[in-house]
Amino acid sequence: MTRRVVVTGLGAVTALGCEVSEFWDRICAGKSGVGPLQRFDCSDFKVRFGGEVKELDLAEVLPERESRKLDRFVQFAVCGAHKAIVQSGLDFSQGDPFRYGVLVGSGIGGLGEIEDQHAVLFDRGPNRVSPFMIPKLMVNAASGNISVHWGLRGPNSAVATACASGSNAIGDAFRLIQFDKADVMVTGGSEAAITPMGLSGFARMSALSTRNDDPQRASRPWDKDRDGFVIAEGAGIVVLEELEHASRRGAPILAEVLGYGMSADGNHMTAPDPEGRGAAYAMMLAVKDSGKNFTDVDYINAHGTSTPLGDVAETNAIKTVFGSHSKALSVSSTKSQLGHLLGASGGVEFVISVLALQHQVAPPTINLDNPDPQCDLEYIPHEPRPMKLNTLLKNSFGFGGHNACLVLGRAP
Predict the structure, then answer these.
(1) Which residues are the active-site residues?
(2) Does domain 5-248 have CATH number 3.40.47.10?
(3) Which of 22, 63, 259, 331 could cross-link 289 (Cys pair, CB 3.0–4.6 Å)?
(4) What is the CATH number of domain 260-410?
(5) Torsional sign, CA 13, 344, 277, 198
(6) Taking a C-beta distance cutoff of 8 angstroms, is the pair 51, 17 a contact?
(7) Domain boundaries, the chain
(8) Considering the chain, what is the average pLDDT of its residues?
């Protein structure tokens, strides 16, 4: 018999804020966190905007001496974990540290550190490369540093499945608790790929929107005028806990994780299957795993990246899975407000999904002014929608054809 898994802590580091309550208020107000990039000079770049994190107070968690030893994506993850753990009320000095684990995903890892040390190598020679380079850039550096910072000795791993990383990490952590390998997992995704190489690489693929003159309206999922995604950075970290473990200590139970499904497109490294068959299979598995009927799903927090191919493929997948019920579903993409956080997107959107269940409000898709006829579902344009939410589905799809879907329910 599998164990029930609940959410007891939320942490978000985003372009729309780094405190969960403020972040949620801005989501519901239809605000955009996208704007001109400021961290480096991108005046010669094809794309010059994105969703940068600007409000994070690192000193709240990390002394400057420690933060300098961490890549930006790890800084985000540790700060997100701090916020989630504080909300959960967990005291890791109590109990068995081998029952507390960490599983954090990242699509790219320490790209900034790679770029910085590549410049040092060629400008100053191999003996000047930082001894901290390797432990800073590793994709598993987020999980490892969270484990070290809080002394967590249970299952510890990392996931790198491109833009599905955060959702895969949460799903894998869910399974570890379900099958009694851990009682608590700190999990989610983190990414900091707004660097000269990251920005130019995605731009050269023609993956990014080029609306430099109107960045806040550039991410427009499901809209016929969409022209690519908006790159963003940040982290979404949550605390998952076995239900009885959480109940015994009087923890705040925010939502329940009900199901998890994953699959591959087996189609192309960067383009989705046009029919969304792999995505549909992952959605189907997640709903079946939850024990719910397909008609029980009220809302989908979609992957919805604002790419010409991806939005159509996801629409097709939803129709395949839900049939006639797809017309009754409410669907939205919060990437319209945040941009696309790549491997962190699933973590941040999981936080949003939990908040939607708590507040009984489905967040909006802003910038949906001219719906694409091929994207003909109810995408909640412009304004949030108060509604009865008992069960929702969270979708994440990544380059390489990775698909990860999670089903959440209201707190038991």
Answers:
(1) 163, 303, 340
(2) yes
(3) 259
(4) 3.40.47.10
(5) positive
(6) no
(7) 5-248, 260-410
(8) 97
